[in-house]
Specification:
heterodimer; A: about 450 residues; alpha/beta; Fumarate Reductase Iron-sulfur Protein, Chain B, domain 2; FAD/NAD(P)-binding domain; 3 domains; six-stranded mixed β-sheet; about 20% strand; B: about 280 residues; Elongation Factor Tu (Ef-tu), domain 3; Rossmann fold; seven-stranded mixed β-sheet; six-stranded antiparallel β-sheet; globular
Chain lengths: ~450, ~280
């Protein structure tokens, strides 16, 4: 009976206690021990046609890396994963596996396998031990400039460096990693992990130049003049979109990006003793928008009295992280939208006025739609407000050039050839800058596709 | 070495000028732009106006006043030291054109920024009237430079220790009342000064530009910390500015937002003094 039980239930991952979480920014999910990883790997049915692989945007050979774990062949398991994914310790932590590989797991007699936890175990184990540098083919004589060091840029850089091209990544901020550094909090993705993955990428020959804004410090034209043969734009979706409601510029109102950048990139949670960048979290906190779970959890750790996320339809995030946020005390309120922010005489925010929404069926299209219920206005007393709506791409690099790069009017995304990801002759783009804000793994996937077509372009040129 | 300080001088009490090796920035800078720098690993990202740049020499010149912990930390760096992070040039360049008669108003440490604009506006043939002001005589900077450049030149101090006693706005007001006319007024300094100048020129419908010194982090439009309301619409100082039509700026909001972290600023300074 007990044996059957083990086969049925997922091996739980240890987590920090809720009390500890609220005191620190340390990682909440502690990862599998070797014993736990072996136990979880043993639950895999090793299906004939593994749907998990199909469901993974990178098509990682999940079946075989799990098989290698069972054999204790952790280095080989790592190689197996890295064949397809250049950032496994990151994906193991931040991928919404429940919507991807795990959704494909056909372990019909029990819980699906915790594939993310196994990927993380292998990646961490190997990063800690030091990963063998793969053999790099002879230098092809071609150089590629990559704009942005987020997941898309790191992915395309890794793939192209492995093909023997010379790669330079240009990063606008003072630290490489893009959204992995400025966007995702330490308690979900420790910076040490991101830095280790980036160190590995540097070891395979990729050069990273920080504090250079393409479109300002240098332009795309300058890069071609300097002798780069091709350019990849992986500039992400980093511009906040405000709600356009009254009171958004009151003091105490943050865009999601500002709040997260202060905390993640600038370490404002160590202010004033270590970091010199302040952050202000006072009283009750209203997070406005479905993308606010990370910010809400940060606010709780910074001493908020209460944190509520108000959103319309569906909260954005991984199921484990939403669960953890709720455990920590984040309150969720759906079917509601903000109308205005109300401030005091000193122009500090004091209140949010919201209106409840109800779902009705559009009589013309038959589709459900949300309409405000005029009689249900709510006033929430908030001294800190975070606007957590979607982000749009930054077009600095793509517009300050003589090259013709097409940008969509509404979403501000770069328009590319869907096959080759080419935006203009010799200029390629991928990740959020093309798709609009999406997931890390989708950006890695786009980077890989771009690498293939950049390689074709380079090898057929001249 | 890049980001190395090659020259440093205290030009007024607590006001320092530094020349930094930054060839890429020097090559691209235009009038009115700025850089963002971090003095150390845990430092704040602070925006500073580019006062001068030499593409041949590959250097930029910055002038700053030691007010908070970060500017004090910057002030401690000596010739030969390297600034941890330096990025730029940021912001939209100022509109340097032939307007005709231009009045430049600068106060305190921002007199340096006023001088940079004045120089460029003079180069294209404008007639320059300058009003520089400070709390007291010892904080007046770029006096000789302005004296040489200006067609008319006024010095104003709050306490009357040098030049006219009073405020820059008083001088501008008098000039306008005595039928002096300007095609452009360019004001840079504290929020109160810029608002004051803006209020004075409004009834005369004189085009007035101010350079807003909002709080910033990334400087590329990512965080929105620097947002201001211009003509009822939200704008980001880092990418849409720093120059704006003064008559369209919501100064009350701007003033409130730049003081958002005053308490924290004090706390950081206190800790710095203790160490």
């Amino acid at each position: 009976m007990q044996i059957l039980d083990i086969r049925l239930k997922r091996v739980p991952m240890s987590e920090l206690s809720i009390e500890e979480r609220l005191k620190t920014f340390s990682e909440v999910a502690l990862g599998y021990s070797e014993e736990q990883a072996l136990a979880e790997a043993s639950r895999c049915l090793q299906c004939e046609n593994p749907l998990c692989i199909e469901m993974c945007p990178l098509h990682i050979d999940i079946k075989n890396f799990i098989k290698l774990i069972r054999k204790g062949a952790y280095e080989e398991a790592n190689e197996k994963i890295r064949e397809k994914n250049c950032l496994p310790s990151i994906c193991g932590r931040v991928c919404p596996q429940e919507k991807l590989c795990v959704m494909g797991c056909k372990n019909t007699i029990g819980d699906p396998i915790n594939i993310g936890a196994l990927e993380r175990f292998i990646a961490d184990w190997n990063l800690e031990k030091g990963i063998k540098i793969p053999d790099i083919p002879k230098f092809t004589g071609k150089s590629v400039a990559i704009v942005g060091s987020g997941p898309a840029g790191l992915s395309v850089a890794t793939e192209l460096a492995k093909m023997g091209h010379h790669i330079v990544i240009f990063e606008a901020l003072h630290e490489a990693g893009g959204v992995l550094i400025y966007g995702i909090p330490e308690f979900r993705l420790p910076k040490k992990i991101v830095r280790q993955e980036i160190e590995y990428i540097k070891k395979i020959g990729v050069e990273i130049k920080t504090n250079i804004i393409i479109g300002k410090t240098l332009t795309i034209d300058d890069l071609f003049d300097e002798g780069f043969d091709a350019i990849f734009l992986g500039t992400g979706a980093g511009l906040p979109k405000l709600l356009g409601i009254p009171g958004e510029n009151l003091c105490g109102v943050y865009s999601l990006n500002e709040f997260l950048i202060r905390i993640n990139l600038m370490n404002a949670y160590t202010f004033p003793y270590k970091s010199k960048t302040p952050i202000k979290v006072r009283g009750k906190v209203a997070v406005l928008g479905a993308r606010g779970m990370d910010a809400a959890r940060c606010a709780l750790r910074l001493g908020a009295e209460e944190v509520s996320i108000f959103y319309q339809r569906k909260i954005v995030g991984r199921v484990d992280d939403i669960r953890r946020g709720i455990e920590e005390g984040v309150k969720l309120q759906s079917l509601i939208k903000p109308i205005r922010l109300i401030g005091n005489e000193k122009r500090w925010v004091e209140q949010v006025e919201l209106i409840r929404l109800k779902q009705v069926v559009n009589s013309r299209t038959g589709k459900p739609k949300l309409i405000p219920e005029e009689s249900s206005r709510i006033f929430y007393n908030a001294e800190t407000v975070i606007i957590a709506t979607e982000h749009i791409p930054n077009t600095i690099a793509a517009t300050n050039t003589s090259r013709n790069i097409r940008i969509s009017n509404k979403q501000k995304t770069i328009i590319v050839d869907p096959e080759t990801l080419e935006a203009s002759n010799g200029i390629f783009a991928g990740g959020d800058v093309v798709s609009g804000a999406a997931t890390v793994i989708k950006a890695i996937e786009a980077g890989k596709r771009a690498a293939t077509s950049i390689n074709n372009y380079l090898m057929n040129k001249h | 070495m890049e980001n190395e300080i090659i020259f440093k001088k205290e030009i007024a009490p607590g006001v320092k000028t530094i020349k930094v090796r930054a060839p890429l920035i020097a090559k691209k800078t235009k009038s009115g732009q700025f850089v963002i720098l971090r003095v150390s690993e845990d430092g704040e990202r602070i925006p500073l106006t580019l006062i001068d740049w030499d593409p041949k020499e590959g250097t930029i010149t910055l002038v700053f006043k030691e007010v908070g912990a970060s500017t004090r930390e910057l002030g401690r760096l000596e010739v030969g030291d390297v600034i941890h992070d330096l990025v730029g040039p940021l912001g939209k360049p100022s509109e340097i054109a032939l307007y005709g008669k231009v009045c430049i108003v600068g106060r305190g440490v921002a007199i340096a920024a006023a001088y940079e604009r004045a120089k460029k506006l003079k180069e294209v043939g404008n007639n320059i009237t300058t009003i520089i002001s400070a709390r007291t005589s010892k904080f007046l900077i770029y006096k000789e430079e302005f004296e040489k450049l200006s067609d008319s030149f006024y010095i104003v101090t709050d306490d009357g220790s040098e030049g006219i006693k009073g405020y820059a706005g008083d001088v501008l007001k008098k000039l306008l009342e005595s039928n002096e006319r300007f095609d452009l007024v360019y004001a840079v300094g504290a929020a109160t000064l810029m608002k004051n100048i803006s209020d004075i020129t409004r009834p005369y419908k004189i085009k007035t530009i101010v350079s807003l010194n909002s709080l910033m982090i990334d400087g590329t439009g990512m965080c929105g910390c620097c947002r201001v309301t211009i003509d009822g619409k939200p704008k980001f100082v880092c990418i849409d500015g720093p120059d704006f039509d003064a008559h369209l700026v919501d100064f009350e909001e701007f003033k409130a937002r730049i003081h958002m972290y005053d308490e924290e600023e004090k706390a950081a300074l206190k800790i710095m003094r203790e160490i």
